[in-house]
Amino acid sequence: MEPRLVLHNARLLDPATGDHLPHTALAATDGLISALGDDKAMRALAGPGTTTIDLKGAVVTPGLVDGHLHPVSGAELTHGLDLSGCTGLDDVREELARYRQRLAPGAWLHAWGLDPNVFGDRPIEAAAFSPVLDGIPALLQLFDAHSMVASPRALELAGVDGPRTFDQAAEVVCDADGRPTGLLLEDAACELVERAAPQPTWEERRDRLARALHAMAAAGLTGGHAMDANGDSLALYAALDTAGDLPVRLRVAPWCQPGADAEALSALLELQGTGGELWRTVGVKLFMDGTIDNGTAWLERPDCHGESTHAFWPDPAAYSHVISELHRAGVPTATHAIGDAAVRHVLDSIERAQSGAEGRAGVRHRVEHIETVPDDTVRRFAALGVVASMQPTHCCDFTRADHTDNWSRRLGEERAGRAWRCRDLWDAAATVVLGSDWPIAPYAPLGVMAGARHRRPSRDLGAPPHGPEQALTGMEALRGMTVNAAYAAGEERIAGRLSVGFRADLSVFADDPARTPALELPQLPVRLTAVGGRVTHRADDL
Asked: Could you say which of 16, 28, 109, 535 would form a disulfide bridge with 504 (CB–CB 3.0 to 4.6 Å)?
């Protein structure tokens, strides 16, 4: 059978061994790498239907996989005004004022990427943006996507005029008189106002998602672990897949929220394994806490404001029960756990599930984010076989080496000094997977790997690194988005390597991404990406 794709005049880098292979070409057939060899031998396999590409000495790696991202919500969220480059309130006000001038009468203003550090020591509230937002409905998403600021007009249209009670640790923040300040914490509170805004059509959402995914392919991504299946996400993936317009391979984990009963768990079990050619529903995503920046994390000691003292699940034992039920059913879980108490409870729950009378071996659970943990918690990941899913650019871009940022001030020196312990987890034999958490941080995988190595703010690479002792090497960072991502998905026998019989999901770069200096890595040209042997991005001169 003739191959679908032949790549030649290449350097082949297998991160599983850390070495360049003694081959210069490969062939892909039926979605898999079917042959490795020299240029002449591989070109001889090509037929009239084969795409044959001279890579001109470029470096081929297994396809890069983002270990944590939100494609559908990201495509929607990033359609509005990007505030991520604003470093002060005046910057934000100027951007809002300019954007407001382009709005049609009565239109909603949507913005994203708002950094809480711009507020300094003042409260995060809508009053900070008066009079710019006076009279218009506006929703300003904070960078963590766990909170937003709603303008008075938006609150009015949504009928939110006081505190509310939720089944999860969410809050409509109010002043001493019970009036909303505009700050909404966690999804349940944010949704109260979001659903009052006009919604895009199905076609608009599908096209935005397609554009976002194609941009990811152009950045070097061939896959991602999508950490939600909210709304009609699965239908959108199916539509693109059926149309042959899904350029990345997606592993999707739907949410299980507090209050989930037996019927809800049964529905999650029925979803497992459903999907199409390039997407599959595998696993369940849960939350054990919120974020440190908005005071909704779960810490073993309160932060400097007396906040971050509770779990996202009002009854943490109910979370533990759900983990046991899913483990018994053989379903892997991914739990958002940022604070030390949250991470500890997740590991305790997994340990109990594994040791239960009906526990099943081989179910790979994972913890997402792990922003601050003590030594004894670091050591437990490898012992329990729990994957550590890390987003190093959150440390780079949302904290500071001198601990003057909101995240560090809330935690204090001791806990801020153990931020994003990628190196310690790696050295303790944990499987560390790297991702962006897009749209929280940019999805460009070269930027993610660079951040894991230099730990500096991407907007000021001359600034000192935050916790340089926690940096990974170039090869380790590459493994975190290839070999380890495949292991986390239970696909280590078919993905994450350049070997015959493995998926022909390939990323191609102008030079070796493991050896390119960290500060230069984000600018390394992406020459080609392929998924299952189908080219999804190709440089103009190839």
From this structure: 28
Q: What is the pTM of this model?
A: 0.93
Beta carbons of 156 and 193 less than 8 angstroms apart: no
Residue ranges of E strands in 320-442:
333-337, 366-369, 387-390, 432-434
Residue 187 pLDDT: 87
Nearest Cα neighbor of 225 from 382, 447, 391, 340 is 391
Q: Enumerate the β-bridge partners of residue 148.
A: 141, 184
Count the Cβ atoms, other than its own, within 10 Å of residue 201.
Answer: 8
- Contact assessment for residue 249 and residue 223, using Cβ atoms and an 8 Å cutoff: yes
DSSP letter for each residue of 256-306: --TT--HHHHHHHHHHTT-B-SSEEE-SEEEES---TTTT-SB-SS--TTS
Contacts of 182 (CB under 8 A, 6+ apart): 125, 126, 127, 149, 150, 151, 152, 155, 173
pLDDT at position 360 is 74
The amino acid that residue 370 corresponds to is: I
**Which one-letter amino acid corresponds to residue 279?**
W
- What is the number of H-type helices and E-type strands within the chain? 18, 25
What are the Cα distances from residue 275, in Å, to 63, 233, 282, 285, 378? 20, 12, 9, 17, 35
Distance CA 144, CA 331 (A): 27
- Identify the segments of the chain with pLDDT beneath 70: 357-359
Amino acid identity, residue 97? A
Name the token pair of 199: 């919604």
In this prediction, residue 28 carries a pLDDT of 98
Sign of CA dihedral 366, 116, 404, 462: positive
- Please compute, for residue 286, the number of CA atoms within 13 A of its CA located in the half-sphere on the CB side: 34
Distance CA 385, CA 367 (A): 11
The sheet carrying 366-369 orders its strands as: 284-287, 333-337, 366-369, 387-390, 432-434
